[in-house]
Amino acid sequence: MNIDSWKAEWIWAEGTGNENNIYVEARQSFELTVPFTKALVRISANQSYKLYINGIEAGRGPAPSDLLWMSFDTHDVATLLRNGRNCIAVAAHNFGKDKIVTEQLQGPGGLICQLDVYGADDQGANLLTVASSSEWKCRRSPRWKTGVSRLHMWGGYRELMDVSREDGWECEDYDDSSWPPAEVIAAAEQENSPWPRLVARDIPYLQENLVSPVTVVSAESLLGSIQTPEAQLAADTAEGRGPVVMDASIPGSFPQITYDFGAEIVGYPELEVIADEGGVLQLFYGESLELDLRDTYLLRKGVNKITPFGRRAFRYLKVGVMATPVPLRICDLRVRFVHYPYKDGGHFRSSDDKLNRIWEVGRYTTMVNSQNHFEDCPYREGALWVADSVVMAKVVYQTFNDARLVRKSLLQAAKIQNDDGSIPGTGPQRNAYLLPDFCAHWLFGAAEYYDYTKDRAFLEELWPYIVKLAAWFTEQEDDAGLFANADRDGMWCFIDWSDEIHREDRVTAVSCFYYKFLHTAAALAFELGEEESGNSFTHQAAELRKSVRNLLRIPNTAIYADCLNGDGLSSSITAQTNFAAAWSGIMDEEEISVFLQEYYLKGRLPQIRGAFFYHIVLETLFRYGYAADAVRIIRNYWGDMLDRGATTWWETFDPNLPFSTTPSPYLGHTPTYLEDAVPVSLCHGWGASPTYLLNRELLGIDISKAGHGQVTLRPSAVAEVEWAEGSVVTRYGKISAQWKRDVDGVYRFEAHLPAQMTWKAPGLRDISVSTDQDRVHVRGTVPVHEAAPKRTPLVDCSG
């Protein structure tokens, strides 16, 4: 059976093209009179849709994408069709042209939908096509009120819905004769269309689970009354749930219940409310108890089935009611929790319960931020930031064994490449956010994906983008080959969330990342047989390393200044700059030891507060034999977050601030201090690095070369941990390992891995190997790593 070409057109509600925050409803009825075996709906919208077949919800989407590469979904709807009259109906929403900080959610409103029905004969012939066109009916929805305000400048609008305006428009027996015809915006896949390409969904649909709140934080009557506020909590419901009764019949009363779901979730609240005489219900959301009003419902008399059209991200949900002439009853309150459908993968446990909790919170944070692409924070913006994706990908490799979301996220970043060859730091829609270090991180992520999967088709597809990006980097060089003018207008030289890094002109960390970029590009070129490019990149890298070492290093030291400008080397010296030099290969091993022992571990540099940059710090410490110090940092930095109530990792964190804080715009955890327009993220996947490092480095199962069929067994036993055990799942099967300190003080290690994998065990002593059936068993002893003495800061080198 062949899927027919697109016959559908992009449509929208007439006369709404220049307005913001538009909801439309479109429908078409049709007859089915012959037997059929398959029925597929292909559908997309800018920016979101809900599909109904005969009044039953059949799907929502699409995956966010750039307008030039518009993603579409395919839904099998055969079980929802019937002989006789049928109806296909779509509700869709468009953000409009309002300003948004990350420049996402842009473009005109449009939806495209095509149903193809196939016969029962051997050929599976196409019996019927129902394609969106001017013959469809389409109206501006009467349910959502206009003129509502924005929640903040990173996201969309609040929703204000009049539930009494629901009229059964989704159903097949609805009379739409008074509706206007749809306005055709463009034909499918036309070059001059706002959406010239339609790209089939290339990852599974999101997993959906109904979850209930775990506790009631507060139930405040506020002149009204509340009965049984705990009735909708997660519990044994064998006897059924009773209703929550809320009464706001006293003038001015506003009873409210705040629920805690235990950790951040992403999805769609669903409530069933019986309001015999109507009233108003509002929903407030927050990652912390700084809650924001997002949804308001004008209830109709009787039963109200309530769910927002837009996705929500929150830990706390407050329900408030007002103007209820008689008490209303909340008979059901749950959330349809959505995330990428990872299968059960690896695990980690140790004698240190805090490390175990840190591993699990990182796993969960990554899962919550795994939606239709990797997201940097689902509450604030849900955008596809490059650096966040690269860190979360490492967690996926060591934890989940499903790299399809990694592949998609890397390709989406490539497809919004700028004309000059640079790649925006965020997406998935093209924008002006140019972060030079993120351009390099994108390639690091692509190379790591290739090593993990050996996905040659991916590498071949990406190669033209890599070549173009390399040419852009070359264009940024000064006469010595350094990356220059990094503080120019329109460029955000990020490095890390820190005001202490000086970033003028030739920024050392950027040139260090550029050096690593060139080495990475050379390796990929040789992999593809592009010998000339590989040799050129290798030569460039060697020349750049000389320049960085000669021009950016403080004379007669192993340490690098933050930058070089017209006045010479900056006076500022930061840990971030020097870790960038160590991690990228600019420093040699002796210099790395001097930097770590004499500067970083003695506390002579400003403290790092950004959870993202710690992945570079920790990888460097583990790589050069400072495992105990790495574990100490994990336990202290992330453990302090746990002690302060974190259930997902925060975007940034300063442990020196007062203990009783959760990050907030008012509490100084980021450079956005006292800018209340910037919502601080309490669920940020870029801080999940301990999860992959505990499996890969502490336990010692490194599958970063799994695409080559290789595993490296390199446990890092530390004196503070008595034992560790866990597993990692690969396409070859599960690898499990454990080590523990025996009564004689010796740390003994064993691993069990699929026989078809090759392995090496650097640092493991007294190795013995046995096999049985399709498994290999490796045993040995592990040298213990001792932490450097903890020191207090001696010198502030921040300048």
From TrEMBL:
Residues 37-190 form the Bacterial alpha-L-rhamnosidase N-terminal domain. GO terms for biological process: carbohydrate metabolic process. Residues 700-758 form the Alpha-L-rhamnosidase C-terminal domain. It comes from the Bacteria. Residues 345-694 form the Alpha-L-rhamnosidase six-hairpin glycosidase domain. Gene3D superfamilies: 1.50.10.10, Galactose-binding domain-like, Maltose phosphorylase, domain 3. Signal peptide: none annotated. SUPFAM superfamilies: Six-hairpin glycosidases (SSF48208). PANTHER family: ALPHA-L-RHAMNOSIDASE C-TERMINAL DOMAIN-CONTAINING PROTEIN (PTHR34987:SF4), C, PUTATIVE (AFU_ORTHOLOGUE AFUA_3G02880)-RELATED (PTHR34987). This is Alpha-L-rhamnosidase. It comes from Paenibacillus rhizosphaerae.
